[in-house]
Amino acid sequence: MPQTATKPLASDFLTHFEHALDQALKDPRHAGKEPAVLLEACRHLSFASGAKRMRPLLVDHFGAALNLPREARIALAITSELIHTASLLHDDVVDEGTTRRGLPTANAQWNNSVAVLGGDLMLCIALEQLYDFPREVTFEAVTLVAEMTRAAMREVDARHDSSWGLDEWAAIAHGKTGALLAFCGTASARVAGRSELIERLGLCGHHLGLAFQITDDLIDVVGHPIDIGKDRLADLRNRNPSYPIALARSSNADFARALEQLWQRDDLAEEDVQRFGAWIVELGCAQQTLATVEDHLDRAMDALGEFQHGPGGEHIAQWATQLRTQARWSLEKR
Length: 334
Fold this sequence. Notes:
This is Polyprenyl synthetase family protein. There is one protein chain. A hairpin with a 2-residue loop joins strand 1 and strand 2. Helix 4 runs parallel beside helix 7 (135-160) and helix 12 crosses helix 15. The protein is mainly α. The protein is globular and about 55 Å long. The chain is built from 16 helices and 2 strands.
């Protein structure tokens, strides 16, 4: 199985997308202008081999379902990918990250200033792709960036204030993951002139995004390091908002008190981290987390409706099936 929650099915669309993204970052409005390092930082992360291209593929699938021309799908796909990648540049500064997509982060390769300002430039290039679309699409993209920014700040605050629960987790997860996948659906519907589908396709993307995030959270708790390609229980070690952790805290007062005491320590002993991971499973929170993943996937497919049986939509439905299978598999591997 893949290392983390799986992505939509690839298609030849990606070949055209990669070329168009390269051209967008070579646009004369930006290429050849000083300081060149900002565009270099954009390209460094955008074309790293570890990029999953989940959001461009989802745009392609929504667009195919709505009969959008390839050019329109590519423009929206570039916007979604660059907004996402800009958020990663900024996240790595906040988190003091050193590795991203198998490469040194921009802040490690250069410095924080290059990473932050490179991310800002990337957001500008993302919005430029929407020039030929109705202005409502650009307004929605700007609102999306604002929502993602607020969610990122809430996540930072949550690491320093361990009182967060399920409601706060949901707000962070929607802003960090669900909102952008929702945009993939709503923007496609707006550009296609299908106003009656904006809410439906947005709900589909939103629920897919939450299912994707919760699956990653679940794998962090129950996955084996060899299978997931990273250290298990990283969310517990790093005090990250996580659905299974929030669920355990909300359902068991003893766990909540003990976790609060654990997280007050400067250094966490590995045996304590492992003990709390096992405790989450013993409380039944892994099984409840799986049920939540499946509920979000069911809601996504309900919103997608009849499109799941046609072009584009069938790929979204297959992605949902892959996510469901991976979430179930993570528990079966225990």
